[in-house]
Amino acid sequence: MVRRLKKNRRGLATVEAALVFPLLLLLTLGGIRYGWLFLKAQYITNAARMGARTAVCPDATPASVLAAINALMTAGGMGASGYSVTMTPADISSLEVGDPLTVRITVLGANIDIMHVPLFTKLDPANWNLGASVTMAKEGF
Average pLDDT of 59-78? Predict the structure, then answer.
């Protein structure tokens, strides 16, 4: 009798694994995907911070700001991601000491997504814009 019960329950573990494995796989891939996007968001924030830091220096030019941002975005693997940079005010040479300057970087999530497979349509990060904005005061003497 005991042997017959063990024989009948042998396939139960396989069925349970078949039910649980897809959910576990979805959870794991979702964690990897969102972790990747959080890493890229940190790179974008650091690039915006470095761009603002470069822009508030007394001898800054728009070309030097864009070069600093491009260097960090390329180091983060997003050099060709189609990001956009906005500086407010656009003419940084007209800033006086103490005036605020804002650097904003925006990247479409689809350009830096690791999987390119929608897991959930409305929550899909490929539809998001990742960005960072940093404001600093113009330096000088």
Answer: 92
Q: How far apart are CA 117 and CA 130, in angstroms?
A: 18
Show the domain range for 42. Answer: 2-137
Domain count, the chain: 1
pTM: 0.80
Q: Residue 141: pLDDT above 70?
A: no
Q: What distance in Å separates the CA atoms of residue 124 and residue 34, rounded to the nearest whole number?
A: 10
Question: Rounded to whole angstroms, how far apart are CA atoms 136 and 49?
Answer: 9
SS3 134: strand
Name residues whose C-beta falls within 8 Å of residue 10's C-beta, 6 or more positions apart in sequence. Answer: none
CA atoms of 28 and 6, how far apart (whole Å)? 33
Q: What is the pLDDT of residue 66?
A: 93
Ranked by mean pLDDT, which of 39-48, 105-114, 117-126 comes out on top? 39-48
71/73 Cα distance (integer angstroms): 6
